[in-house]
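Internal tracking record. Fields below are filled automatically when a chain is submitted to the structure queue. Please do not edit lines marked as system-generated. If the sequence contains nonstandard residues, flag them in the REMARKS field before resubmitting.
Queue: standard
Priority: normal
Entity type: single polypeptide chain
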Amino acid sequence: MKPIDPKQAGLTSVQILVVVVILGIIAAVLLAPRLLGQAGRALQAQAAEEIETLGIALDRYAKDNGDYPSTEQGLKALWEKPEASPIPIKWEEPYIQIPITEDPWGNPYIYIRPGNHDQYGYDLISFGSDGVEGGTGEAEDVVSWIRRDE
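SYSTEM-GENERATED OUTPUT FOLLOWS
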């Protein structure tokens, strides 16, 4: 057996760099789906929170003015006094300070009055990441009414 030369023992910095890069790639492949899933759930939670915020503002509007804004007046009635009928009787302030018009995926919130699911109130909908009705996961719709396994 040939003795080991102390100058040649160990790994070179290039070998260490290659090992670190390979470990990074493996970690990214294993962790990326989990991290992306968390981001999707976070956006779903943000949409639900925004719908709740809009719902509180809509309830305040209805309390002051006797009814919710019409579908035509839309959510804009929460920060600008509507000029279309029905004219609100006591619109005194913006009901929401920062207008919320788009969901976390950049799609407009859908406001319907009277609602198809809440005939005495309104329906407020985000169609999720895909922007179309239905879907699962991140593409699942976020709605203002309580779902009962539709």
